[in-house]
Fold each of these.
Amino acid sequence: MLGRGVKRKWSCLEELEADTLRAAEKEQNVEDEAGFLAAPSESDLSRLQQRQLVLGLCMEKLRGYQAGMELSLRRSVLLINTLRQIQEDMQSDGASEALLLHGVHRESCPLGDEFGEDVPVTCLRCAEDDVDDLSPSPPLSPEFSSQEADGSSDQQKSLPAAAAINTFSDAVNAMGYLGDLALDMDIFEDIDTSMYETSDLPSSWAAGSLWPVSVSLWADEDVKTRSPGHGGAGSLQSCRMDLNELDHIMEILVKT
Amino acid sequence: MAGVAGGNDFQWCFSQVKGAIDEDVAEADIISTVEFNYSGELLATGDKGGRVVIFQHEQESKNRPHLRGEYNVYSTFQSHEPEFDYLKSLEIEEKINKIRWLPQQNAAHFLLSTNDKTIKLWKISERDKRAEGYNLKDEDGRLRDPFRITSLRVPVLMPMDLMVEASPRRIFANAHTYHINSISVNSDHETYLSADDLRINLWHLEITDRSFNIVDIKPANMEELTEVITAAECHPLQCNVFVYSSSKGTIRLCDMRAAALCDRHSKFFEEPEDPSSRSFFSEIISSISDVKFSHSGRYMMTRDYLSVKVWDLNMENRPVETYQVHEYLRSKLCSLYENDCIFDKFECCWNGSDSAIMTGSYNNFFRMFDRNTRRDITLEASRESSKPRATLKPRKVSTGGKRKKDEISVDSLDFNKKILHTAWHPKDNVIAVAATNNLYIFQDKIN
């Protein structure tokens, strides 16, 4: 297993694929990868694992743009569509989703582990950096008020889902570069997540917003308009809202 | 003309390789497009450094008939320079995205080359004579003292060493907001189209200050954007018809007679998705990277990430032929997504008689499919087999189970070596294959 803050290597991915393949074979002897989508139980887990992986990579790719170079619109659109598909997938999975995903996090598979913990933490960290570092942004429209988690049991449940949702907001952030906003580069530096141990998570979570990236893009107003009191139950709805936000921002930024 | 070879009729053999042998490849030297002209006498390549290199077919002689597939450098010029968009604070790469030859009308050759934003029309002409004996200037070109001109003479043309000149004749700029992915000369030989991610423009070859927007898929709200144009081409015979492909795996055929703005297509080609093979990557791998009409104009071919499909223009609901290019990668999509290979844009091409098609893959492999016999072959562009006249050995990738001798396992494929651009001589079994910074030329060898 890779230590924290260590970059994943190509071979690591291959292992995951081999793992998932093996798992599937154990389950149902002969099954191709596509079969994961339909099959239940263990292979369902692998599907969730893959989804989490794809989601994480999506975000990484949307963020990892090259300064001064125009993003390929084709690539961005394909990535955003993949995000949308994952979102739909999550919505259709319903409420059991969060728990299942949470299960994945506790799996011992190196990547599952990495993504289970790294991605959400990374996003949180991003967000915090954003609040500090971003140059002034356009004001936020009221509909995009962000939410805070309250109650630790809710946090436990919504944590993984929130992670995914955070990444959606990240996409918003990334798509912003289509519109060539000159944003501070610091947030894209390799992020050392070592300071966020699992045990610290709930506290850092409670301290910050569940919607950190919305904060990041609209730093000025959002801090003021951030309203507490929305629980984890609204996460799916928020997810949808978040996508609207993405679209809205795209509209503003990409319009020529 | 025969198909893909590998059987008894003929085999492919090595002819030439162009480009440096060095292990470390300069980014600027990577070939980004390859194109034969209409006669096959000239072969043009463009690279990421904005250069165009034109090769000319070596004249055959009776005692050296094997020179059929030999090309030598004819002209090299800098087509595009890196620029900076000050409004957007973005660099504009000099990389040549596409080259298209114009049908030859006189002794000179013309081609269009494009980077992300600007299309240029180049004239490539030969000069082997030079005028001498001007009255007002001397041989060095300096003006002569008028008082010393005491008699008039008639300038004469003197033979000189052959010189090939490339001169920019037209520059078509400022018409594309997004990245140009395709240019295509129309069969009327007077107009051409250029396509970027969201729009297609129609130009007259003589007019640079205006173009007609014939397709615009940019939604009023960019939030609704879910699809981009990935390639476009004019029909080879009907100058009113063109097609464009999209990132959703569909192809639209438009008729310019129907309306000036062809936002509404005449035909819509789409294959229903197989629900059993659905995954998170379905849309990405169905995105079409290239579309090419057959020479006859009856068919078109599209390339997506894993396959190449041949469509009959008269049947919109499914392709008439589907060929798997590297189906063994389906189980590797996650890795290919991680390392960004899944966004690679493979191109495809027809042979001169439309009986065979060719497209690239990874590990410097390229694939050919014979449409009549349904035979396919995998060949490799490598320096190891680059001895003159050496026959290319068919390669095989093992797909699960035990790896047989001479087979290469999927895991040992080199994904940094990819063949995205290939070209087939319009009349002969000579192919040009771009492998990173090298251009390989292969030809058939009749058994």
Amino acid sequence: MATKTKTPKSNGKKGETRRDFLQLTAGAFGAVGAASVAWPLINSLNPAKDTLALATTEVDLSPLLVGQSITVMWRGKPVFIRRRSEKEIEEARDVDVAALSDKQTDEDRVQKPEWLVLVGICTHLGCVPTGQKSTEPRGEYGGWFCPCHGSHYDTSGRIRKGPAPKNLAVPDYVFTSDTAIKIG
Amino acid sequence: MASGPREKFDNPTIEWIDSRLPIFTMLNKEYGVFPTPKNFNYFWNFGAIAMFMLITMIVSGIILAMSYTAHVDYAFDSVERIMRDVNSGWLIRYIHMNGASFFFIAVFIHMFRSLYYGSYKQPREILWILGVVIFLLMMATAFMGYVLPWGQMSYWGATVITNLFSAIPFVGESIVTLLWGGFSVDNPTLNRFFALHYLMPFLICAVVFLHVWALHVTGSNNPAGIEPKTKKDTLPFHPYYTMKDTFGLLVFITIYAFFVFYAPDYLGHPDNYIPADPLVTPAHIVPEWYFLPFYAMLRAITFDIGIPFTDITIISAKLGGVITMFGSIALLFVLPWLDTHPIRSARYRPLFKTFLLIFVVNFVFLGYVGSQGADAMVGPIPLSLLGLLATGYYYGFFLAILPWLSKFEKGRDLPPSIHESVLD
């Protein structure tokens, strides 16, 4: 260590020495270096290329009768497709949107009113809500009910009651014909 | 550790080793002649019991890992193979499975002991904080271990708990994807959980080492909550407490063995013997019993917190629940600064004792709330409302009652010494 009196001052500014500068730059370089090594390690935990390459899912809707639902897998997640009855569509559209906790009109959530396509994962903590079969509990709003923590979804898949913060997500999909869709 | 002048050993081999690495001197100092308050009751057994459980879990776990396959297609079947085909596999797995429960039983009692006798107070704050760190690591380890058999509860437990992180604003979804290594709980998730489940017990060992080190600096607290003053107040650790610990441990192991042999699935959940199915959530997901009170606090917040008379939500119900659950543990870290009353032991603090016993009953009640369905009712009252009230008491105990008692509770007169407290 240099003695106090011999410490060279840079630019004559008080308290700042060449040593401070060297320590700061060395520290900064060290931090950048450590971070640049840490990032590939952390990033290796993100979805790998084969996971990302999971294909889209095509679904033939023609066997579904009015009021029926099917569940298909897309990217390891269940996707709910329900062919809604007139009554269900009406219920979904008769709602005062301003009173919802996640405000969305039913029109924004469907491409064709008859076909409701949703990611079947509760937006609270990721359970699969019940209600795909007519014998399962559908909650107080006739859509889906999440048994884990009691979230009620309506016939548009919107959150109406319970701890979930958001409506059931609508995945990207296109109608490839009148009775077939491609999800993803 | 043990350095400086040391006494010679008579045995030449021990002396040869000890003069090069004074490990026998250290053992004798810390576990032989170590002066220990002479008034310990059986609550002081549970540190040693927890240590025994940690070793049991590591030994049985390493053997299980040799027959387990961490892949979504094979995990469930490999566990069934351990149960049916591997020699004594059923025994080793039941030891490990019930061992988790009994490890938590020991640690909960150990923590209650610290609360009741004020063992977290000055000068043992760091000792206590290290203990809370061990508790957190144990919870993470237990959670990841429960995922490995890849049953329905494994899968959905993993889904629910990893989704907790999605409540974090802005970066939550990215964090969850990072944890999963995919878009749902899947093979990458199972693989990394196995790697971490194998790693974390050794981290726990490291923190236990620090915990014991800190203990041997400050010395043990005791039921009177006063420091030993003279030689009359203490006994050498060996043979007095090695014997007392061994006796308590044998009683504990007897109860543990009863569960392993006669009720091995009593503390578990039958749904975990159904292979994981990403399309069907079990109607009633519950975590293992030792997480139930914290699970109840997670579910207690069912409302958004926002600016009154506007639509602006500051904390959604989901984030609120997550904060409440993690906060309940964060409070333990700052406990030594919430309860600053100069008297340690609840024996001499009647008010503290009353509120603490209510706290324990309340904590057990939270466990009951956590075990019930989300829409359960008690008569006309929704159970979730009672869960919210119980959560309120949990927080109130730490944030209001303890600071208030620290200021206003007079307390009883302390005995002049440990020796005299025993003679009463």
